[in-house]
Structure of Phosphoribosylamine--glycine ligase:
Amino acid sequence: MNILILGSGGREHAFAWKLSQSPLCDKLFVAPGNAGTAQMATNLPISYTDFSAVADAVRTNAIDLLIVGPEEPLVNGVVDYFRQLPDLADLRIVGPDAQGAQLEGSKDFSKQFMVRYGIPTASSQTFTAASLTEGLAYLDSHSLPVVLKADGLAAGKGVIIAETTADAKNALFEMLDGHKFGEAGNKVVIEQFLRGIELSVFVLSDGVNYKILPEAKDYKRIGEGDTGLNTGGMGAVSPVVFANDSFLRKVEEKVVKPTLSGLQKEGILYKGFIFIGLMKVNGEPYVIEYNARMGDPETEVVLPRLQTDFAELMAATAEGTLDKVVVQVSPQTAVTTVVVSGGYPDAYEKGKIISELGRLEDVTAFHAGTLVDGSEIVTNGGRVLALTAQANSLENAVRKSQEAARMVQFEGKQYRKDIGLDLIRYAD
């Protein structure tokens, strides 16, 4: 197969890395890609939101399989776009259509979906600018802390946890009246705060059949001890020690099966990844959110543990034959530490030369925000590298990943030094 991946981050580099190991993969392309994907694929200098350019690339390079990495093209209907092109309507695509991608694209849709199909989640209500007064009154009687979520895509920044009623009211006013998150905040979901421990479960659906991939836990905040601003993710671990077989069976029965059954009842042919963000509360799973794609940096710990041919798995997803594929998973632990630019997640500089990458041993460096500049690899984003180590114990995987993060050098480098340490304590 000739395969095209849309995206430019660590997730897409991990996809390319895994696909390049498959004998089923003939030619591999990434649009637009990064310095890491350039080592194993042909980068195409086109935007993944330019659907016409993507279609031209599919024609020019005789693409057999299209894998959509980020959420934006999915929510904006890239699958629907291809389905209405006479010559490309039958292209095999991994990724849901716009209707399916609403699971991520609209928090209000996903909450209503969960309620309709009895999927455990926090109680919530949705408000708009027209019902701002009712929303403010609703907050007066709401328990604290309280969660406010912009309905649409807000680049991972649309969730606010307010500790006081005054802060919650101010946040609601800023979102609905001040347009803090633009159109994404035209609706705001006010949600009960759940106390528990967080993890993510990843499902592949071909519209009828499904496979559950290895679970992962990521670390969202910039600072150690989960302090400071939210980021796209500072690290991840798989497997998750507190997600034992009995808990994962509950996830499958109470969340995965009703989600897929609900999609079928809604007439949504969902072919792609479903990322299920969960909170384990008193031993029970509650859904915090759905994403319509793989997580990042979770992909960088999930795929290294996957022993099944990834190209075969992707083709089966697009073709509706997942029931014929056996998913095999390594028992090893994978840990990734994300190295980020100075100033991230606020303003940061690009173009810093990265050194010492060639000296990393037993660690896979997935490029997230990098660029080839002449003979140098330079920083080109907030999250720069995801450094993944695998080992027979969580302690060893943490140690190797952290050693790699110390070794890689560029001006302003930051990383968290506590990735996975909470899970070591939990296991003890």
About this structure: The chain has a mean pLDDT of 96. The chain has three domains: 2-85, 124-192, 197-427.
